[in-house]
Design goal:
The chain has about 190 residues and is of the alpha+beta class. The chain folds into 2 domains: about 100 residues, N-terminal domain of the delta subunit of the F1F0-ATP synthase (Peroxidase, domain 1, Orthogonal Bundle); about 80 residues, no CATH class.
Length: about 190
């Protein structure tokens, strides 16, 4: 069975259980922390979770640590269940699918904002309001700082990129000037 079908089945079961238990938000928070920590140390996680020589208890302890506190009882039981089924190496795929299902149900868009400098609270709120107005959804924003943008920001929403950075505008101007120069050269 492939990762996609396994992760969908397990995530759907966890989502349904979390809904029935009224802890969707807590499970989502735990899986979000797990995914963030997983991607910080992806190589090490993959090695440990896929290694049949590593004891089940050690794998569970690693996932529990990556989830962090608070670790909701439903999520703890689910992690144990996944370990019992020897599917620990699928945990990241399950987490990502659960997060996708949660965002879809709660009308949340995952967004990345890259700015040249630290984003003020006012600017942060304006960007969230823009997303709400434009896309009709709440935004879950991750902010990154990249001084090479010079100023402005780049907003990535799902599969859409909006570049309002000074560096992006300068690059567009440069490309337009190069195209103009090419098209204005006399033919030989």
């Amino acid at each position: 069975m492939d990762n996609g079908r396994i992760s969908v089945r397990y995530a759907r079961a966890l989502f349904q259980l979390a809904h029935e238990q009224g802890c969707e938000d807590a499970v989502y928070g735990g899986l979000t922390r797990f995914a963030r920590n997983y991607f910080l140390a992806i190589t090490q996680f993959n090695e440990v979770l896929a290694d049949p020589m590593v004891a089940r208890e050690e794998k569970v302890k690693l996932v529990d640590m990556a989830v962090g506190e608070p670790l909701h009882n439903v999520l703890k039981q689910f992690i144990d269940f996944v370990a019992d089924k020897k599917r620990e190496d699928k945990m990241i795929f399950i987490a990502m699918k659960y997060m996708e299902m949660y965002r879809e149900k709660h009308n949340i868009l995952s967004t990345n904002v890259t700015t040249a400098t630290e984003l003020s609270d006012e600017s942060y709120d304006h960007i969230k309001a823009f997303i709400k107005q434009t896309f009709g959804a709440d935004a879950e924003m991750e902010v990154k700082i990249d001084p090479s943008l010079i100023g402005g920001f780049i907003l990535d929403i799902e599969n859409t990129r909006m570049d309002a950075s000074v560096a992006g505008q300068l690059n567009a101007l440069k490309n337009n000037l190069q195209l103009s120069a090419i098209s204005s050269q006399p033919s030989a």
